[in-house]
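This part of the workshop introduces the protein records we will be handling. A record pairs a protein's sequence with a compact description of its fold. As an example, a complete record with its sequence and its structure tokens follows.

_____
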Amino acid sequence: MITEFRGLGRASKSLGLVADWTYALNGKGDLGEVLERLMRLVKADAALITRISTADSKTRYIARCDVQTGKVWPTQPRSFSRTLLGDWLPTAKNGSIWKLSDFADRAQTGMSIHLDRIPEPITEIVACPLEMRNGQADVLELQYRHKPAQHDLDLVIILIGTLAPCWRNRVSGLIVKTLTQKRRFNCVNSLERSDVSVLDTENPAQLTRCEFRICSLLKDGMTVNVIAKTLSIAPTTVRAHLSSVFSKTGTCNQVELLHQLHRQKSSFIDVACTR
């Protein structure tokens, strides 16, 4: 009976996740938060959505998150989808499943991929091409630092069967807008303008009010747990917002973000955090 209840609970969460994924792709929700929920639902250690150029393998991160239970300094995961799919990336079918474990006998099959580039802590990678368009591949990637249970992998396959078609039906210009905002701030950084900072009143990184508030508290020396208590939100929510901030600012972890926050004195308006 307990197992049945757990199964029903997971099914309900799966349906809710699909609904929120659809809302986010229609510009009505936070794609990063939905991605984190997917990661936790299938018990992965990291989840990423990337846009990869098939011409030069340049990878841009649309959204990414990592399990950081009990850690003060969450980091941003790196994508290995290009390494995993190799020469098959341009022709991989949308919604198909590619697993690291499937390439265990690569030496015998003569597959031209370089799995030695994948660090040892990662024991399994599940990559799913979402869409190929104009020489660019959008890929959903899940990473495991432990051997995933078969029922978790089965759930991944079931969910991807729905998530991939939704991706192709997203609102026009949504992903381009997201990447443009990140690129705009990276350009500001490359110019090394002395009059621009992350917490500048012009908000060059296009932070939301909550992200802006979290950055200001982080700059004041607060940890994730303290920020969560101050704003009356869960630590996982703080980490989800930080993940979005990392993507927008081109940083990989809190240490790099703090360097940007303390690069110069910033004048900013203290705003309330709203979900």
Q: What stands out?
A: The chain has two domains: 7-168, 174-261.
